[in-house]
Amino acid sequence: MILILGAVCCFILLNPKYQDLKYRTFRTLTFVGTGLSWIALLVHGVRLFGIEKMMKQFGMPCYFLERLLLAIGAAFYGTRIPESK
């Protein structure tokens, strides 16, 4: 799954057609969607081991923090907050 999502993300980022500013949000959402593919793995882990074990032994809160930071960074990139001021 991640191989296909990564290939699609690379194609969109490197294709000259999508280099225009009007595709900036689309490129950002593609990157975020690839980054959020971990949700399928967590759902699978919760079904196998239960939520308590996933929270304690597999460090699920760290994954949530990591993805939150990824989303914040992508939002800064997509909206160009630092550059627009």
UniProtKB/TrEMBL annotation:
- Coiled-coil residue windows: none
Q: Does the keyword Nucleus apply?
A: no
Q: Where in the cell is it found?
A: Membrane
Q: Where are the transmembrane segments?
A: 29-50, 62-79
**Is Transmembrane tagged as a keyword?**
yes
Kindly state one GO CC term assigned in the UniProt record: membrane
Q: Which Pfam families match?
A: HlyIII (PF03006)
Question: What InterPro entries does the record point to?
Answer: AdipoR/HlyIII-related
Keywords recorded for this protein, A-Z: Membrane, Transmembrane, Transmembrane helix
Q: How does it sit in the membrane?
A: Multi-pass membrane protein
Q: What is this protein called?
A: Ferric oxidoreductase domain-containing protein
